[in-house]
Every structure is written in C-alpha cells, then in structure tokens.
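Subject: for your reference before the review

Hello V.,

The reviewers asked for a structural picture of the protein, and I figured it would be easier to keep everything in one thread rather than splitting it across files. Below is the amino acid sequence we used in the manuscript, unchanged from the supplementary table.
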Amino acid sequence: MPSPRSQHRTLALVVAALACLATSASTQIEVAALSGDATPEGTHIYKSFGLPVVGQDGALVFSFDTPDFGPFHFSGVLEWDAGALLTRTDENTPVPSGAPGEVFELVPSNGPARNAQGTLALKSRVLINQTLLLRQSGGGALELLGRDGDTAPDGNGTLEYGDGFAPTINAGGSVAVSVNLFNTSGGTTDDQAILRFDAAGSPPVRIVREGDPAPGGGTLSGLSAGAFFPNPSMNNSGEVAFTSETAFGEFGVFVGDGNSTTAIARSLEVAPGTGGTQTLSAFSSLNPINDSGVVAFAATFVSGGGFGAIYRGDGVSMIPVTMTGDPAPTAGGGVDGTYLLLSPSLGLNAAGQVAFSAATDSSALHLPGLFLATPGQSDLCILRLGQAASGGDSFLRVEEFALNDAGQLAFRALVASPGALNFRALYLWSPGSGISEVIREGDSLAGSTVTGLDLSGVINSPSGARDRAGLNDAGEVAFRFALADNRSGVATTAPGAAPTWVDEGCALAGTLGEPVLAGAGSLAAGSNNSITLSNAAPFASAGLFFGLSSVPFPFKGGMLKPVPWIKLLFTNTSGAGGVALPFVMPTGVPTGTSLWTQWVIQDAGGVSGFALSNAVRGDTP
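And here is what came back from the structure prediction:
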C-alpha cells in the first residue's frame, strides 16, 4: 500500500503540472489598514481597530484608534473599498448640529453599523462620560439623533445611551437603540426602554418600556435592554424583537413596532414539537428578526436545564428548528449522536434559515459544531469535531459565525494540526460548494505572519444584526487580524475571490452506500487544500481520476466525469473507508480554471464490483 507521503507527493505533482497554464494568479485578501500606518489625512497613525463589517456594495467599514495622548485621543470610522477611501468620520469632522463647539470622541470599541444604502449609525462621547447617538448618510454631515440627558419621549425621566454597543440600522435608515432612564416616576420598575429613530428631526418612537402591559397578561419588566445591553434586532419594516420578563420567573419573546406589541412565545405554554411533554420556561435574550417578521430564538423547558430547543415564530405559529436529543447530522449526510447543548446565539436570514452552534453527545469533549436549518429540510452539518479541514487538519470547534441571505456562512474555527499546535482560521461555506478556507493563523500577510483572527458575527454582535456582520450577500468576508511583528489590521476578501468546490454528483453506491468526495481550501496560489474521500469500502483499492474538463463517460456501471483525465492516482482506502489528500496549490493557475476529481473504488457490493464517489469540481479564484 502506498505510504501517505508518497500519496501526497503524487498529488502534489499532479497539481504542480497546472503551473504551466499561466504566469499570474489572483489576490484573495485586500488589506484596508495596518497599525503603524498613517491615517488618510497623514497627521496620525493607526493604533488599533474595531471589528470591521462589510456592506452589500463591498465597502469595508471599521473604527480605529490612534496612540495620541490627552483626554480625547484621536479616533474615527472609515469606509474603504478596493483601495479607495469612500468616507471618513473622526474628530476633524464638523460636530453635528445640536452640539456646537463641543469636542467629541468617536467610540471605536463598539464598531459602526451600516445599511446597504451606505448610512452609518454610531455613537460618540462628548465632554466627560456623555454619549451622542449619531447617523451619517453617504459621507455627509453627522446628524445628531440623541444625547445623554435628553427627556424620554413620554416625558418620564432622562435618557442614557451608553457607549458599550453599536446601535442597529435598517435599510430605511431607522436606528434602534436600547437605553437606560434616570429620574423616572417608577424608579427601577420603568428605567429601561427600546427606542427607534426614523426621519431626521422627528422625536424617537418608543417601541417598549418597562411597565408596559405584556401581550397575554402581566407587565413588561427586566427588559434585555438599556445602555449596557446589546441593542435589539430590527427588520426593514421597523419591527424590533426583544425578550422581557412578564412576572416573577416568567418570560416572553415579543415584537414591537411602536404601535403594537405581539407575543411570539411565553413561559408556561406547551412547547411545540414535544408532544405536550414539555413546557416553555425562559428564552434567549437577543433574537434575530427577518423582513417576514419571523424571529429565531432558543428556549428552555421547565423540566430541564440549558436551552432545550430552537424555534422560529411570527406571532401566529411557532415551529421547532431543532431540539436537544434530535439526531445530529454529519458533513457526509449521515447521523452521529444527538444534539446535546444548543447555543442561544443564532443567525437568521430572509429565507428563514437558522444557523446555530451545538455540541453533540458523540464525543466526550462536547465541543460545539456549526449547523444550518432550512425550513422543510433536514439540518445540515457545516462542521463537527474531527471533521477534515484543509491541508490534512481537522476541526475542533466553531467559535464565531455569520449567515447571509444567499445561505452562506462565514465562520472562525479552532483547528487541530497533526504534530503541531492548534490554530484558528476563517472559512466560508457555500451551498453546493462546501467549506473553503479564507485565511489561517500562520499564513503570510502584509510582510509578516498571521497570529490572530477575529470575525464580526452573531456571538460578538449578539443581536444577530446584519448591519454589523463580517459577511455580505456576495460572499465577501471582512475580518480583523494580528501579526507576529505586533501590528494589527483589517481586511476583506476580494470580490469573486471566494473559492468554489461544487458537488457534481454521479456517485455509484457500494457496500456502505455512496462514497463521498469533498474538497476544501481556497485554491489560491500557495494555499493549503485537500480532497477527502469518506464512506467507501475499507482497505479497498481506489483510483483518483483528475482532469481539467468534463465529458461524462460510462464507467463500471456508473458515470465518470473527469474525462479526459490528465492523471490517475492509485492508493488504498483506510480502515474507516477514507482517503485524505492535502496539497498546496501552485502559482500561475488562471482564475476560473476547473479542477475535476472523482474516485473509483473496488467494492464487491457495487455494480460490476466497483463503486464511484461523487465528482467534485474546484474552480480557482
């Protein structure tokens, strides 16, 4: 049986042959800013950065700080796209109307919020410990929406916006924010609220306030709101989703629009999907809402600890997404164990797909994997403990993720590497293409080596708001990075740079069913990649067909797609029925080159004594 080293060397020779096809390769990562570099006006240097977000137009938006000394160090927010500065907001920006002559300092730690139309929502400090709520459209003048000390819309108390979290903005430019209130008539019983700011110059709309009647009975109290709480999720209709206590030990999930409030779920209701055996108890505190008015949330049951289920609800119906104890899918389409621990941090898109992380009982480590639930379909496994990653590595756990309306997922994962230290990497998962590596710790970037990576997603932007995501609908990923030379920076993947691995089908079943072939990695020049075979007959002779085009050809009772093939690699499957072949992509392969692969496995349970994996096509960026 060929050794793993000889297998990998053979595959490397195959892909190295591609280098003669051209002399240039595309660039995948675009660095927007680096610490130590000059800011655009040239009078300051960057020190640190907030988490970047990427707009639907591809613009990267990020906050920054400088090492200037004094009570108000220099800070700001920039928009950047493919090397061009689109707009900037900093202490040199004219102060907004309503705060004449005051020195103000932007708050880079919580980052900006930006809608698809290029309108920003952000916070700033003025004087000492006073916060402004600001909006800016198209790089124009800052608009003052509110400031600490303003009178509440109903006249009861004064507002405090705080500076811990960015506000939420929708496509129409409406801004939702959680506030604390002081000097109220009810003291601690009415000192939190959620407000929405719409048209310029109009007073804020009160979405909800402690002390309001709760739909279904009781009083709204203990809101997951206030200046020190993350801001709630809001859709493009101005509907805001929030969780509140309704009575001692009882809770509910609600949606308000400033005119009415609707109950999505409440404590002591029978839990859907349990056959009447469970009763709802409490709920996740921050829950995404889409433009159809659907809210995704996690719920606990009276009889158990932890989150027992994830639901979609719209005020009319409540549908289970998944539950503790449900079968947990694997990446190959099978099932291994059941869901054990469900995370309350959820992603929700326009189609009602819900992304969630969960641990399973199939491993003693119980490290969380990443899953995607689509209405009317079985859950998909994006990654699980032990699943093959690019370059022969394996996934340990997911740590952060973002979901877009195209059904793609960007995520950061902890990865195990044989004979080396664990590391973190960023990936993009696409329907039909699978997982592609964006960048990993240890990669070369900006003349140094990557030592840290951060992505804005549903965990560190816990309302699940799309305006603070590191992934847009074009599949572009924005991230913050640290380097071995102590610099840091922000970057985005180039438009169209996201690699594509496409399942082209044509598997032919053997003893264990259909063998599964999957590709992983970016296919960018110098990147680590792998093709992995699983679910094949154990210890079986196998041949990998490799080609650059496909004219399907009948073969052993099935259909072979890499025809004409330019290389054929022979090896044996492992005792688990798999083969993992890592390789480094050579330089010089033209953008859009298609790499076709498919395994043929000797298998007495297959037609004519053979089984075929599905064919996989990888398209170079």
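For the response letter, the relevant points are probably these. The mean pLDDT is 85. The first strand starts at residue 29 and ends at 34.

Happy to draft the paragraph if you're swamped.

O.
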